[in-house]
Write a structure and sequence with these properties.
About 55% of the residues lie in helices and about 0% in strands. With about 45 residues, the chain is mostly helical.
Length: about 45
């Protein structure tokens, strides 16, 4: 099975992005991982 992917773009205030990246970097979580997990949580149960 081939894995399909798509790009997501969002505009975020620079200070919000910087603070979020700082918080996420402490446990070693990437911005990409966070976005994917949030989208997955939204999708679960929406079939």
């Amino acid at each position: 099975m081939a894995i399909k992917s798509s790009n997501v773009a969002a505009r975020v205030e620079p200070d919000v992005k910087a603070k979020a990246e700082e918080i996420l970097s402490k446990p070693g979580i990437s911005e990409t991982d966070t976005s994917v997990k949030i989208l997955a949580v939204i999708y679960v149960g929406r079939d």
